[in-house]
Amino acid sequence: MPVDLSGTWNMVSNANFEGYMLALGIDFATRKIAKMAKSQKVIKQNGDSFTIHTLSTFRNYLIQFKVGEEFDEDTKGLDNRKCKSLVTWDNDRLTCVQKGEKMNQGWTHWIEEDELYLVYVHYLFPFAGRWSFSS
User: I need a labelling partner for 108 at 20 to 30 A (CA). Which of 13, 15, 32, 73 fits?
Assistant: First the structure.
C-alpha cells in the first residue's frame, strides 16, 4: 500500500514560485500577492481516493480524484486552465500528468520525514514547495 498523505500541512518554503507563475502567464500583481501568501494543504486520503484543499489568505483550491482514473480539472483561481489530469503512484510519490492547452504540466507529492513536498512542472520549469505536518 502506498504512503498515506492524509493530514494538515503548513507551508515552510517555496522555491522558484514567482518564476513558475511567470511561466504560467500570471500577471505581476497576482504574482506579488501570491508569493507572500503562506498556504496550508489539507489532504484526505481514503485508499486511492483523494481530496486536497490548498488554502491561503489569497485563494483556495480544491481537487478531488481517484488514482488511476483520468478526470477533468479546472484550475480556476490558479492559472485558469481546463485540462485532463491523471494521477498515479510512482513508488511512494503521487504524480499527476495534465493534458490540455499547456503541455508538459503536472505535479508530484511525497513525504520525507515529517514534511510534504510538492514539485509543479510547467514546460520543464519547476516550482518546489515544502509543508510541515501540523495534524
Answer: 32
